[in-house]
Write a structure and sequence with these properties.
heterodimer, A: alpha/beta, Purple Acid Phosphatase, chain A, domain 2, seven-stranded mixed β-sheet, five-stranded mixed β-sheet, 5 helices, 14 strands, about 15% helix, B: mainly beta, Immunoglobulin-like, four-stranded mixed β-sheet, 1 helix, elongated
């Protein structure tokens, strides 16, 4: 198993714990068991064995929530013949966290084929999660056949357009974006003009000290365009967020944890609770990656996020299901 | 023998000729044909296909992930439902032209059918 040594910030010129000199990459690939934690702007990485070994004090904060992603309910091929069981395991993991998260974000691909029984099954499983509030954004698997009508009926209350919305929790502003609609041939994820206009208006009245969390299915940065792992017009969205001192972007879609810090923006992608996918370019295509059955849970996971008021950045920590 | 009966016999003859082939053509046609496109590993194989007018193209998904087949020409000529593993979609090309298409779930997957 990959063991990453302590990997801290090197250039803290403004003494606020954020490296503005350049990129600080913390890669945590599925199956490596490595993860990153960013608290008060200091980025640390550890190899993950057991959650109980973590410094519990370091995980407290004013706001705690969890990101899960890519449950693909309905998938039943060899890469994981029982995605319900692994989603249940993710819920168990969430329920065992030292601080009960206040709510959950699901960054899409809730279902595998947009079937009603698949959405129902996920809802049923999530009923046993301690955090009962769940905020969703759709993945491309959730909007098949009906242009996303069913997704909107189930999860789109209060949202605009194809399901974008924002809300506030303890002074943190959350923005759910949809970048899986109207995909063009040969293209990447797309936000579209209407959503971008809405976003610009939505954040305009906010003070620059407001911490921002943006969540969307397809990565809002260019992970690997060859496989469609990026969003065509995300630069425009990020431009509207330039004034803020802390922006955390949470995505899914690629079924592996990946984190990048670029100035005041932390990008993070979550593991799937269903099946892993290969690292960029390491396979012919980004399809489900088969691993030995006993390793499966070590390549699936959840993400725990903690916000401490006064600290610039949110603490984002991934953990696997085993 | 009436014209109608003669016509019926002719029909039966043509149907007899085309038994065993997937086809919806009727009288006075050449033997219709079906061409397969295999959808696998996030790609269409062959990605570029040239067929004669009247050919039926059948896309079969052999991948372990669902895909769709959606034409991107102005007329939006064809659009499949979501195809899970082993499901198929067929379309008969009755007009000559070039028909680019893609998978609407994974837009990087593109292909085209050239009908001559």
């Amino acid at each position: 198993m990959f063991e990453k040594k302590n990997d801290q910030l090197l250039h803290d010129h403004n003494h606020d714990g954020i490296d503005r000199r350049g990129f600080l990459k913390c890669m945590a690939w599925a199956g490596t068991g490595a993860f990153c934690i960013m608290q008060g702007g200091i980025l640390k990485s550890y190899s993950l064995s057991r959650l109980s070994q973590m410094d519990k004090g370091g995980m407290k904060g004013e706001l705690s929530f969890v990101q899960i992603s890519d449950s693909h309910m309905g998938f039943n091929k060899p890469a994981n013949p029982d995605v319900a069981a692994t989603l249940k395991a993710a819920v168990d993991k969430i329920n065992a966290l030292p601080t009960t998260p206040e709510f959950m974000l699901h960054t899409g691909d809730i279902s595998h084929l947009s079937k009603p029984e698949e959405f129902d099954a996920v809802n049923q499983i999530l009923k046993s999660a301690k955090p009962q509030d769940v905020f969703y954004v759709p993945g491309e698997h959730d909007v098949l056949n009906d242009d996303g009508k069913q997704f909107l009926e189930r999860y789109g209350k209060g949202s605009k357009g194809s399901g974008w919305y924002s809300f506030d929790k303890k002074g943190v502003h959350f923005i759910g974006l949809v970048n899986v609609m109207n995909l063009k041939a040969g293209g990447l994820g797309t936000l579209g003009h209407d959503q971008l206009e809405w976003l610009e208006d939505d954040v305009k009245p906010l003070k620059s000290s407001t911490p921002i969390v943006v969540f969307a299915h397809i990565p809002l940065w260019s992970v690997y365009p060859e496989w469609g792992w990026g969003t065509e017009d995300s630069a425009q969205a990020l431009a509207y967020l330039k004034k803020f001192g802390s922006v955390t972007v949470l995505n899914g879609h690629i079924h592996q944890t990946l984190q990048k810090v670029e100035g005041k923006v932390t990008f993070h992608t979550a593991a799937s609770t269903a099946f892993p996918q290969p690292q960029p370019g390491k396979a012919d295509s980004p399809g489900p990656l088969k691993v030995p059955a006993e390793q499966l849970r070590s390549v699936l996971g959840i993400t725990d996020v903690n916000y401490v008021q006064g600290q610039q950045a949110l603490a984002v920590m991934d953990s696997t299901l085993s | 023998m009436s014209i109608a009966t003669l016509g019926a016999i002719l029909m039966l003859g043509v149907i007899g000729l085309s038994v065993g082939q997937k086809s919806s053509t009727a009288l006075a046609q050449e033997k219709p044909s079906t061409v397969e496109v295999k959808v696998d590993n996030f790609s269409f194989g062959p990605a570029s296909l040239t067929v004669a007018v009247g050919t039926t193209v059948t896309w079969t998904n052999r991948d372990d992930i669902p895909h769709t087949v959606v034409s991107t020409d102005d007329a939006k000529t064809f659009k499949s439902k979501v195809l899970d593993t082993d499901q198929s979609f067929s379309f008969t090309f009755s007009k000559a032209g070039t028909y680019p298409y893609f998978c609407s779930i994974h837009p990087k997957m593109t292909g085209k059918v050239i009908v001559q």
